[in-house]
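Sorry to interrupt, but I need a hand with the structure work. Please put the record directly below this note.
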Amino acid sequence: MSRGAIRTAVADLLSDHTATQKEVPAPELPVTLDMPGKVADFLRIADQNSTERATLAQGVTVRRGQGHTLRVTAVPSVHRQFLARCQPLDGGHVLLP
């Protein structure tokens, strides 16, 4: 049997398997970002959902001179929610997705 025939047979057998894999979205991996302390304080008093509240509560405060930052680890969708909530701090400019 030729190599081409083997490749064709294997591709035919795996076509169902690979089609299923393409339909499943890749999981979002957590990302760690540092946000300024004033932004973190604003987000703490803003109306949030439980995921955002828990993410901020798990953040680690890092002192920076006279101020601080909050080191937050979350999936990118939660970080995008934080950015959307911070629009009033940016003078109302629209943030692109």
Remarks:
- The two ends are 52 Å apart (CA to CA).
- The first helix runs from residue 3 to 23.
- The chain has four helices and three strands.
